[in-house]
Please model this.
Amino acid sequence: MPWLILLVAGLFEVVWAYAMKQSAGFTRLWPSVLTIAAMLVSFGLLSVSMRSLPLGTAYTVWTGIGAVGAFLVGAAVLGEALTPLRILAALLIVGGLVLMKLSSPA
Model:
């Protein structure tokens, strides 16, 4: 269950990153509200997952999900570039996440 909670926390990290982009530097109300709400949920779920997962594993996986998720949302929704080097970078992050999961005792 902590891994599922961590996955959802990472997905909320993607939500708040996208909403923050849409908030235009916190100058737009509703994207700003969504950013703060998603941050609270994301941090809260991360803290719950850390009750049983090691700090280094939980934090690395959480940020990795957020990084790769934001990369994918940026490309799919915002039209950001999908260059071979950026794709390789995302794949390396995913590889690191898999290794963290495999090396975790929980």
In short: The chain has four helices and no strands. The two ends are 10 Å apart (CA to CA). The chain has a mean pLDDT of 95. The CA atoms of residues 68 and 97 lie 10 Å apart.
